[in-house]
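Researcher: I'd like a structural prediction for the single chain below. Treat it as a standalone chain; there are no partners to consider.
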Amino acid sequence: MFYESTRGGLKGLSSAEAIKMGIAPDGGLFVPEERVTIDIDRMRHFINISYHERAVEILKFFLDDYTEDEIRECVYNAYTLDKFGCKEIAPVYKLTGNIHVLELWHGPTSAFKDMALQILPHLLVKAMRKTGETDEIVILVATSGDTGKAALEGFRDVEGTKIIVFFPNNGVSEVQKRQMITQEGRNVYSIAVEGNFDDAQNGVKAIFTNKELIDSMMKKGYKFSSANSINWGRLVPQVIYYFSAYLDIVKSGEINLGDKVNIVVPTGNFGNILAAYYAMTMGLPVNRLICASNENNVLTDFISSGVYDRNREFKKTISPSMDILISSNLERLLYETTGHDSERIRTWMNSLKNEGVYTVDTETHRKISAVFWGGYSNEAETLDTIKCIYKDYGYVVDTHTAVGIDVYDKYVISTGDVTKTIVASTASPFKFNKSVVRAILGEDSIRGKDEFELLELLSRESGMDVPPGLKGLDKKAVRHNTVCTKESMEEQVRMILNV
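Model: Treating it as a single chain, here is the predicted structure.
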């Protein structure tokens, strides 16, 4: 399997080369040159094997320059019982007759990003060896909250790497911030940016394509790579859990192998739902992909109209990991939908960069809207969903998962489609405990309490244990206290690397 840039600048790269580079020099994202297909007979073999073995089988298609033993080593080192606390790794919870919740938050940082960022460092280290890399790899990350901590934790003290994470200073929850600024490790750097996630992401993209900086780094023995979902090595492990969830539901007898399901994904940067799209193109029986947004509903509007327009008010919401107006991974979907037409991709991405808007052609929009359905939830609807789910089912969801469930309800009302549905649950309710407690117990319950007191309150109310990675966060020493402007992000990188 070879990889190419969505913008046409590079082709014929091995998976190891694509994972090591992270982003293409032309600013494009790497995608497989060919489509992978898994037929129903092969899927039948996957039903009674573990998550780990499903992962090995799927990754073999995409990482064929890795040996099976190398892939198995990466998988088993990443998905341990010690890190994830349950042998299923990504368990499925039956909420109603129609809704199955795919819990992606059992990893060490209590967010779905662990599903990819626990394995990416293993894939990257092996990629460095395979390609004869002698330079130190600098992982550069922009985060809306969860990716940052998961990446810091995943790459902590990994030999031959440094990791620099930029996050919006006032755009993450207190728990998310404390996770990042207390991160231990001799090769980790966490920096707050005065701005929103898009400012941080744009800054990181500009650094990635700064030729003068890249040349200076090479002289000092450094190369950039990424742990954001722009890195194929981050995205491909996410394909696994959609297959695994489907197979678990088949195994439970809820559906027959071959029956189609809907998949609902609360998403901002479009990576998590894009992984579901790739699973569908590989043969996973999917009826509809439902893209759930908060009030930063640029994706909802795009799916509806074919016009992507980031020229709108940026809203800080109670589901901050989706507070994004530039959805980077949408570029991969456009590339796949246009039959790998890099010229059109370059035109649209240049328009987005220069004017903040682009409009896809009618045929591309038709293909996208045939697969995707988009909707969004406001704050009141999100809180009400958390309250109703807890009241009716005794089940606690976080603010992002609540957006997914509310948008799913709107989808059913709009279409009448009652196909069995998988809802991706992207974070533990404890990560966004202030909003969750407020929804369940009312406004008075949070008054005068900080997020760390609310962790314990939510635990007592729900009967759930506070995740180990969140317990005692407020007592940990702050190790990273740098705050910079969006204009000085490059300067921070130069200072850390002394280039």
